Request: fold
Amino acid sequence: MKGAARTFFILALCYAVAGMVLGIVMAASHDHGEMPAHAHIMVAGWLMSSVFAFFYHLFPEIGAKPLARAHFWVQAVSGIVLVVSLFFLLRGNDGLEPVTALASVGFLLGTLMFVWNALPVLRTA
Ligand code: HEM
Ligand code: HEM
Reply:
């Protein structure tokens, strides 16, 4: 794997390990209060980053573009801030809500960048 495919796959693997550790801690402690953080780490983190990784792997000429690298950084920074701030928000740090909200908008922006990067594939299909 190269370019954005590689960085997204590394990110996906980090989300997978972190999310499962959190899932096991939740299950073992019988405290499911972090379920939304676990769910988003697993699906918005592990699964979405994997989809991005395999897309850019399948279309390496798109994955090598600066726009794919920009997509990675927007999606990675906003996603990590989103799940980390959500984790602490769920532990009662209510002041973090604006941070989580802003990160959510960043995460949407990242996904819109992916839509833009993926459009040429649809046109040439
Ligand atoms: C080590 C493996 C895992 C453990 C121990 C674990 C544990 C848990 C626990 C304890 C809950 C809360 C259930 C509840 O309160 O109803 C949960 C929910 C959830 N988990 Fe996991 N999980 C694991 C792996 C995964 C994986 C691999 C995914 C997805 C790729 C995933 C996605 C979810 C989702 C989406 C929810 C929320 C379900 C709902 O909305 O009802 N989990 N998990
Ligand atoms: C823009 C960022 C997002 C925001 C602001 C957001 C917000 C929310 C909210 C408010 C809930 C309900 C939580 C609860 O009732 O406790 C939720 C649940 C859920 N979301 Fe998201 N979401 C976002 C992105 C995503 C993405 C990208 C995915 C999947 C790829 C996803 C998957 C889920 C799942 C599986 C649940 C159910 C798990 C649970 O109830 O905790 N979300 N989300």
